[in-house]
Amino acid sequence: MTAALELTDVRKKFGQTEIIRGVNLSIPKGERHALIGPNGAGKSTTFNLISGRFAPSSGTVRLNGAEIGGLQPFVINRMGLSRSFQITNIFHRLSVFENLRCAVLWSLGYKYSFWHRLKGLRDTRERAEEVLELIGMQHRRDSQAGLLTYAEQRALEIGITIAGGAEVILLDEPTAGMSRSESDHAVELIRKVTVGKTLVMVEHDMSVVFGLADRISVLVYGEVIATDTPQAIRNNRKVKEAYLGTTLDEEATEGAH
C-alpha cells in the first residue's frame, strides 16, 4: 500500500550547515504519528520540508506517492495536506464561523469567484457548520476569533486545518501553552477530528504523545534514531539518552500533574 507520507534520505542545508541529515520516514494511511526530539533536533524544519515552506537540499518527499518536495505550500495543500503552526494563525477580526467558511471555499470549488455572494453559498455554510459542530464551538459561532481564549483559538485553528477536507494533517505543538485540563480536551478533539485521516504531530508533552500516537519517530540532530510503538519507544535506551538522562516515563508523569 502506498504510504500517506514518505521521506527518503531527505537533507536540508542552510549555507554550509546541514540541519536535516538523511531523514527516512514512512507513515501509512490512517496512522497517528508523533515526531519528537530534544530542542534543536530539526522537528520544525522537517515539518517545513513536508509542507513546502522549505525545499529539500536533496532526497524525496512524497504525499500519497506523488513527489511534493520543493512545491509551494498552497499546491501541497490542494493535493491533500494541511498543517497548523506553533503560533496560532486565525483571522482575529472575523467570527469563528467566518474563519471556518473561509477555510472551506477552495475545497468546494469556489476559488477566486468574485461574482458569488458568500451568504448565498449553501454548501459552504453547511460545511462550515459541520466543522463548527465537530470542534464543539457552536456556542461561539458568532464570537470574534480574536476574543476567544487561547485554548479556544487553538481548537479553531484545528477546525480550520481540517475544514478543507485534507486527508493528511500536520499539527505543530497543538497543546503548547495549555493547562492540563485544556490539553486533555485538545487530545480528545484531535482524536475525534482525525478519525480516518493520517495525523503527523510535533509535540513536547509526552503524555499527549503517548495518549495519541500509534507510532513515534525520534529525531536527534537531524536524524531519525528510532521509529516504533509508544511502549517500545518508552523503553528504548538510545531514546532515553537523547533526552539527556530524563526518561520518557518521568516526562509523561510530570505532564500528568
Automatic annotation (TrEMBL):
This is ABC transporter ATP-binding protein. GO terms for biological process: D-alanine transmembrane transport; L-alanine transport; L-isoleucine import across plasma membrane; L-valine import across plasma membrane. GO terms for cellular component: plasma membrane. PANTHER family: AMINO ACID ABC TRANSPORTER ATP-BINDING PROTEIN, CONSERVED COMPONENT OF ABC TRANSPORTER FOR NATURAL AMINO ACIDS-RELATED. SUPFAM superfamilies: P-loop containing nucleoside triphosphate hydrolases. InterPro entries: AAA+_ATPase, ABC_AA/LPS_Transport, ABC_transporter-like_ATP-bd, BCA_ABC_TP_C, P-loop_NTPase. Residues 5-246 form the ABC transporter domain. One of its GO terms (molecular function) is ATP hydrolysis activity. It holds the Pfam family BCA_ABC_TP_C. PROSITE patterns: ABC_TRANSPORTER_2. It comes from Cupriavidus necator (strain ATCC 17699 / DSM 428 / KCTC 22496 / NCIMB 10442 / H16 / Stanier 337) (Ralstonia eutropha). It comes from the Bacteria. It is an enzyme of class 3 (hydrolase). Its EC number is 3.6.3.22. Coiled coil: none annotated. Keywords: ATP-binding, Cell inner membrane, Cell membrane, Hydrolase, Membrane, Nucleotide-binding, Transport.
